[in-house]
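Submission checklist for the structure archive. All mandatory fields must be present; incomplete records are returned to the submitter.

[x] Identifier: Major facilitator superfamily domain-containing protein
[x] Organism: Mycena rosella
[x] Residue count: 481
[x] Sequence attached
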Amino acid sequence: MAEKLSRDADKNLYDTSDATDCVLERTVWHKLDRWILPVITMFYLLSFLDRTNIGNSRIAGLQKDLNMSNKEYTIALTLTYVAYVASELPSNLVLKRIGPDLLLPTIMILWGLVATLQGVVTSYHGLLACRFFIGLLEGGVPGIVLYLSFFFPRQRLQTRIATFFSAASLSGAFSGILAYGIIRLDGKRGHSSSAWIFLIEGIITITCGLAGFFLLPRSPIHARFLNQQEKDYVAEKLRKDGVMSKDRKFDAFSWSEVGRAFTSPQVALVGIIYFLNGVALYGLAYFTPSIVQSLGFTAAAAQLMTVPPFAVSAVATFAAALISDFYKCRGAMIIVGSVICVAGFGLFLGSSNHHVQYGSLFLSIPGTYLIQPALAAWNANNSAPYIRRATTMALGFIMTNSGGILATWLFGDLSPAPRFTKATQTLLIFSIFMGIFSALNIWYLSIQNRGKANARRNTDSASANDVEELGDRSPWFVYSL
């Protein structure tokens, strides 16, 4: 009888524990989604908007206002990415030490201020200075992905990342709508329509940056909207997933961990895809208004005509992330995106019909944008501990923005409108290679996972310290495909 009562008590204990976990599972992630994602999404949307709205300003008359040549315009874009690339890795490495709740809103306010000043510059050299500091300050933006990894386990990460990458697509749509309205302010208070685009959008960024100080928690344990039980639950999930170390020494800065990120084959393979995709991403982000205008639309109409492809892209990006998270298929989703890109760029290149060329944007833009969250999640999923992951994620964005440098020259100087032949040919070839390198990475990670499975069978157990010290190279760390 006593033994039976003991078994019943144990069963009730486990049932209660399971029920509690189910309730926490339902409520905790929803709370984080409600409190974290809207703020981060707005942060990313405005960063992309302030970096790329120069494309809308261009067709509103920026080059004429500042007496710039096409080559000078391209140099201004390039300078943005040179500064951006230089600041990405340092900002990722100091994010946790300074605290994302302080660093992210601060840089947002500062780049918003510089973005606003673009509206009052009167010379090309003044614009160059602004573009340099926008790039330097926005180099901290990739820390958003790292920040999300403080809150969500690996397999929940891509859908959340896709939320703000969808915002990047929406920024293209939003920028077109906003620019269409703003150009009617031409001449008001002595400012041209191209200047008003910078002034209004920059002020919006400053305002949202100030709000960020009150809305962003430093980490799950500092989140005011979680009770203690919920904080402990999140922390335990992150530790089990390898996102958070049980011993803080494994999250401390280490140059050796920075070096291991540079020497990881999966980081190199994904980095190549990041670069290839970055060329398409920023080429389309900056030059879609110019591409649409070259198809015969007026400047005002071109602003509006950029909206539908980017709106479709936002929906496609989020849908692709849901599928990728559900089936845990990061690499396969990149291959799907590359195929869509091939179709889009192929149509633009092969047709001289303006309606077909415009329609091709509904393939090339969504195909390009849906790849980004899969890449970011793939990088974050397959690197540990913290410093190695922070370095890995910074390297990915460095490669993306290096691709942005090439994009500015492809569309800005090397491949003239209206056909943009060299640029489109390059993007078509790059899209094919994105699929090839994604398949290579899947193959490499599959081999590594089989080797890890064999190692686990031949090893009785591993201490927590052994697992955390080895990070993603531990036999108990399974790579995401």
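[x] Structure attached
Curator remark: The chain has a mean pLDDT of 86. The first helix runs from residue 2 to 35.
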